[in-house]
Amino acid sequence: MLELQGLTRRYGTEVALDDVSLTVREDEYLTLLGPSGSGKSTLLRVIAGLEAPDAGRVLLDGRDVTGLPTHRRGLGIVQQTYALFPHMSVFENVAFGLRFREVAPVTDAAEVTRRVAAMLDLVGLSGLESRAPGQLSGGQKQRVSLARTLVAEPRLCLLDEPLGALDANLRERMTVELRRIRRALGVTFLHVTGNEAEALAMGDRMIVLDRGRALAVAPPAEIFARPADMRVARFLNAWNLLPGRGGADGFEVETPAGPLRLPAPAPAERAATYGVPYDAAWISRDDAPPRPGEAAMPARFVASEFLGSRVLYLLRRGDGKVFEVERHLSREAPESYALDETLAVRWRVADVGLFDEAGLRIPVPDPAGALA
After folding, report:
1. Domains held by the chain: number
2. Residue 83 lies inside a defined structural domain of this protein
3. Residue whose C-alpha is closest to residue 355's, from 234, 249, 259
């Protein structure tokens, strides 16, 4: 459907996009994750035609649209700031795109009414047609903005951090609603966000961008379980990353008390970082040696954070850095620990990720013998 070929965009000496290539499929939800300054919004603006790339092409259905203006591309754009007309009602805001679009404007009043009513019903705003934007909540304004874009029936909808201005409860509800609406219409969504939970929850696939380069493009579950790059693991905010030295017989982490040797899932001569997912570790008061297939590390309790469905425990490693353990309350009850209590954190060696000096993941055999 949409193909990006070697897109590069510079602002003086700063490279915002660095040779980005990507294919967006028909009828999919693609999320784009990256930190501030990674090039996310620049990429969206180049796709939309709001900025021209310095190199590369944008193809839609095989047709080069790189030089076409925004209104000729047939794309929809939903912005974080809603961009509603404050002097128009909800109905008039949604109808605007139908009545005044350059290609095939809808002039029949009955057809405009029918299509606007159907779209407002889909986004859950029936009965609010006569309200002004100033009379709406943040979530309602976002739905109006979405309805105004989708009523024009674009095949691809670009969403630029659409949930960023919403509070946590609204953001969670709109996460579900956006997926429902997309499925109902069969429209492809490209959703830009700086929130890792949002990107993981919403995308059929996700792309991770950093410093203008695409580090990973894969289904969220694959990126979460096997991040291809240490920067990806860091952006996900779900991995403990321990620097050290790998060898044929394990991995060594330096601590004030001397080196701590940890078992690795494979020969680790090239490894420079040892990764343990937050939710793959558990806390033990037992100082017994780890069982076969397990690893253990002494740590001291610092604090815990209650996050609704889960608890995040913060512990101090022997090298002074923080080690985080996530406990899902649907699977196990929370525990209480005393400040500075000596504990052990444990994990299965099979859950470990190894990264080389360049930050790239080192493939290791999975239990079936394939590389993961």
Report:
1. 2
2. yes
3. 234
> Does position 273 have pLDDT exceeding 90, yes or no?
yes
pLDDT score recorded for residue 333 = 84
| pLDDT beyond 90 at 353 | yes
Q: What is the share, in percent, of the chain residues with pLDDT greater than 70?
A: 98
Domain assignment of residue 230, yes or no: no
Provide CB contacts within 8 A for 346, sequence distance 6+.
Answer: 281, 282, 283, 284, 290, 294, 295, 296, 297
Q: For residue 337, is pLDDT > 90?
A: yes
For the chain, the straight-line distance linking the first and the last C-alpha, in angstroms and rounded, comes to: 30
For the segment 64-115, what is each residue's pLDDT rounded down to a tens digit? 999 888 888 888 888 877 788 999 999 999 998 888 877 778 888 999 999 9
d(CA 310, CA 245): 33
Of 93, 124, 153, which residue is a domain's last?
153
Written as six digits, the tokens of 150 are 């989708």
Task: Tell whether the model's pLDDT for residue 372 goes beyond 60.
Answer: no
pLDDT at 365: 65
* Domain extent at residue 86: 75-153
